Amino acid sequence: MNIAGVPFPYDAARMPDLPNSLKGTWIESIYNNYPENGTDAWVQSQIDIAVNFMKSRNVPLWCGEFGAHIPNSTTQDRARWLQTVRSYFEANGIAWSMWEFAGSFGIYKPGSRGLFDYDVNIPIIEALGLTPPPQKEFILTPDTTGFKMYDDFIAPGFRESSWISNGTLSFYSQDRPLSGHYCIHWADADRYNNIGFQFAPVKDMSELVAQGFAIDLWVRCAQPSVNIDIRFLDTKTDVPEDHPWRMRYTIDNTVAAWNGEWQHLQIPLKKFTEQGSWDNNQWYNPWGDFDWTQIDQFQIVAEHSNLHGIDLYFDNIRIVDPKIVRVERKVPVPSCSDLLQNYPNPFNPTTRIQYNLAQPGKVDLAIFDVSGKQLNQLVSAMQAAGRHGVEWNGKNNLGQAVTSGVYFYRLIVRGNGSRFSETKKMILIK
């Protein structure tokens, strides 16, 4: 939208001129009618249409989305409009909710990182009839301990900032996660696509670099020729010569054995090298200005080529002190046995079933129909502790395909005088 600063309520002295690009469009007619429509009474008359419907049908009403766009409105005008709408809803018994709270219609100050203790837009909160939380001044101090970025979920203090123009990205893949229930799965990426973690707020990692901290992560891929970058980006300041500079490290088959199994990498932050910056639609060679005190993002990047036809997996991404966290090539033993949900589900024609064993034992994994009849014994063997998985191809013990429908899979583990059993449901759709 090429027009901003329209006041609410209407104020002729504050009205912006209509841009030439909008003349002759439907927006011009709205602009011309705004002296009559930019009032409390007109807004309330539009809500009255819903109020009359509610009363005539004797039904409850809920408004699940309303708001004023932050980039095009002042805080004061937004607050006045929100108070008018919200108070009239409540006066007429209409329940309401905001569609979102951290975006361009949200409750945070424009241009802020949306931190609840620091960035709440108090006039907006008050216009919504809510109690504003106490606000503090944010002071950036150097991190002195490690932190998680991903472990089943994106960690608190981070937001996803990925750029994907092709392929798929899931932060909740159940395809053989290292531990827990999920890992990151990235497939068929175009060149320069990336998995992004934005720091909220920015971090000062200078002390971690000085103390020899490292990024610690697990990776898995079955394509030996893969090259990817991991990198940190600093913030872009208001200085015209400044750009979001990058520090990168390349992971290839000399760093990780791309053999389809989980590989544990621990890369000291000091080994990252400055790469440069892509900004203002052009490339800037490195100037030595990367700032570890203002880290804005961490990214995993298809920097060197496209990754079409390639599946990459990541898990347990952390910043650690190598003196405390040693590099272990062995996958950790689960703390308890459990049966994971099959993936995909629903499925056709195959699905993968995974389970964790806290200790060695005799494992029986079987498929049953809704009547309780066993159709297929997938596993019946002694197995070691750890993560295990098996695929079911939708066939019975005789190799015959079963029909679409609901099926159950049951895991029984016996060992050391104990017995574990769990059953889950899955759906086959043909």
Radius of gyration: 28 Å
Low-confidence stretches: none
Please identify which CATH superfamily of the largest domain we are dealing with.
Galactose-binding lectin
β content, as a range?
25-35%
Can you offer a commentary on this structure?
- The chain is mainly beta.
- The chain has 3 domains: 12-127, Glycosidases (TIM Barrel), CATH 3.20.20; 147-320, Galactose-binding lectin (Jelly Rolls); 338-428, Immunoglobulin-like (Sandwich).
- It contains 5 helices and 22 strands.
- The chain has helices at residues 26-37, 40-57, 75-91, 122-127, 206-210; strands spanning 62-63, 95-96, 147-150, 158-160, 168-173, 183-189, 194-203, 214-220, 228-234, 246-251, 263-268, 273-279, 282-284, 295-301, 307-320, 338-339, 351-357, 361-368, 374-383, 386-392, 405-415, 418-428.
- The strands form 5 sheets. The protein has a 7-stranded antiparallel beta sheet with strand order 4-7-14-9-10-12-13, with no helix packed on it. Strands 3, 5, 6, 8, 11 and 15 form a 6-stranded antiparallel beta sheet that branches.
- Helix 2 packs parallel to helix 3.
- It is globular, with a radius of gyration of 28 Å.
